[in-house]
Amino acid sequence: MTDPGLEMTAQAGRPSVRGTAPDLFDKFQPLIDQRAALLAGGLTDPFNLVMERVESPTVAICNGRRTILLGTYNYMGMTFDPDVIAAGKQALDEFGSGTTGSRVLNGTYQGHRECEDALREFYAMDHAMVFSTGYQANLGIISTMAGKDDYVILDTDSHASIYDGCGLGNAQIVPFRHNDVEALEKRLKRLPADAGKLVVLEGVYSMLGDIAPLKEMVAVSKEAGAMVLVDEAHSMGFIGEHGRGVAEAQGVIDDVDFIIGTFSKSVGTVGGFCVSNHSKFEILRLVCRPYVFTASLPPSVVATAATSIRKLMSGGAKRTHLLENSKRLHGGLKELGFTLGTDEPQSAIIAVIMPDLERGAAMWEALLHEGLYVNLARPPATPQGMTLLRCSLCAEHSGAQVGEILGMFEAAGRKVGVI
Amino acid sequence: MTDRDERLQTILRLIEEFNKKGVEVTEATRFAQDLEWDSLTVMDFVAAVEDEYDIIITMNRAAEIETVGQLVDAVGELQGSASA
User: Fold this and answer.
1) What range(s) does the Carrier domain occupy (chain B) (predicted)?
2) Which of A29, A190, A252, A417 has the fewest CB atoms within 10 Å, counting from its CB?
3) Is the Cβ of B23 closer than 8 Å to some Cβ of chain A?
4) What is the Cα–Cα distance from A232 to A234, expressed in whole angstroms?
5) Interface pTM (ipTM) of the complex?
């Protein structure tokens, strides 16, 4: 496609229906140009891949080719669990395809309640609130909890949903350097003692797969009188004794005021949630706009989520296998000479750092040709302008598949010249 | 040298570490357009200014600051309110 239209609208003085007003798309021109340059070389578009068929949590057909999936966040492989699928089918039959309503009007079915019950049990917390996506859970809790004169203190590497939650609300926003306890503590001490404060942290940071020093961070936050929110999206089900996440693993879960999570990773469907022990938590159902002003999850989705969450409570063997897979892939890639996001495997995410976007995209395509799908991540989603090939392991990856994956990385890496 | 001059000199010194393109910096220099800093560089730089003066520059406040001169004035105001 050529785009003479875009060029012409950028010319000042050209008569058009807009008069002298610019085309509102002009602001995207640098990105349009960058994409065009990348694709002009015949590269497969890394952000437009279609999975034609999905055989299992670890295998799909892409461009007619059998492809091992290593970038899905489907950590516990619950998407094809027979019990989960049966629960979804039954709910579809009994409750229909959708609720067509808000949680606070006609959109709370028995299944939504059961899903929240499963979460309360999983986390051993008093309250659970299910949102339609994980993005909306952060958006809703952060924008609602922190008012105009309150402060949100957040890690600079926070997920987009956290930044957007800050953007939607009107609190004062104070960022601190990634995983830097001292930077957090200094900032907390500079804030007015009598101001409301919400410290927002993540258990696992999804770009590099590194974990947060929550023990120290929660302690300094509590000392400053702040409430603490931890997003445990990338740890549910396999980090911590009961799979409750990094806060549990580091022994500080009882000091965390809000845990945010998602159904679109370990749980294997879509949706988001917040769990808390705060006695006034339930009022959020009436004041949290991203909860109120959207339709609730379909009955089949909450049924699959509830079944999956309950099965994750007893997923010990899967957990062990997932962590073994992560260790083996991390060690193997390091041995092949790739530069990784963390020196040691800290989670089920392994980030392979590419020298630049061009070689990152070429490597991504070479892997796809080998039959392997990973996530290509690039600025501004990545820290420090890095281009990453992000791999996330699944408990259902067999030992043989991990071996195959390493072989594919070796072949593609040599072809592209990054190792 | 006035307090403001001193602040300007300090901030110019802090800018140098992040001024990878070697742009000539005056009070009128704009962080985004002239220094071509992305949002992450801006956050790192703001953190350096905060630590130098033991103040907080919220993202809300930082969003209103476009030029070096505006930052010098904002730091002066924030220092005043911190010691008050």
Assistant:
1) 2-79
2) A417
3) no
4) 6
5) 0.92
